[in-house]
Amino acid sequence: MRNYVSGAVTMERVEVQNADDAIRDAKIFGNPHGNPGKNLILLSDDDTGFMPKRIDNFSKETLRIYQQKCEAFETVVHSYTSCPYAWDEPYYPHRLTVEVTGKH
Fold it and tell me: Which of 34, 56, 83, 88 would bridge with 73, disulfide CB 3.0–4.6 Å?
């Protein structure tokens, strides 16, 4: 997740379960009609420190990186540094645009 105010990026763990199964496991019987369709979504901080991708800039230039159709959510990678990266919008095309912003 990206904090649009501070620019901080955090990784969140998302677990999706069938809510009816979760209720049955807890020995609590929920919907008497047995209609499925409810999901239990659990969000938690992912402290493993691993992002799906990492961008390494081994050049002398600063790079501006963003996902196609998400130009407003850019990431700047300075020379000889790395940064973790995850898609800003998973449903948009998985195409990364890299611009060289240096003088050369």
Answer: 88
- Give the amino acid at 76: V
Q: Pairing relation of β-strands 53-57 and 63-67? A: unpaired
* Structure tokens belonging to residue 45: 């901080």
**What do you get for the CA distance between the two ends of the chain, in Å?**
33
pTM of the model: 0.54
CA distance 84 to 75: 10
* 3-state SS, residue 81: strand
CA distance linking residue 3 with residue 11, whole number of Å: 11
Read off the pLDDT of each residue in 36-46 and give the average, rounded to a whole number: 77
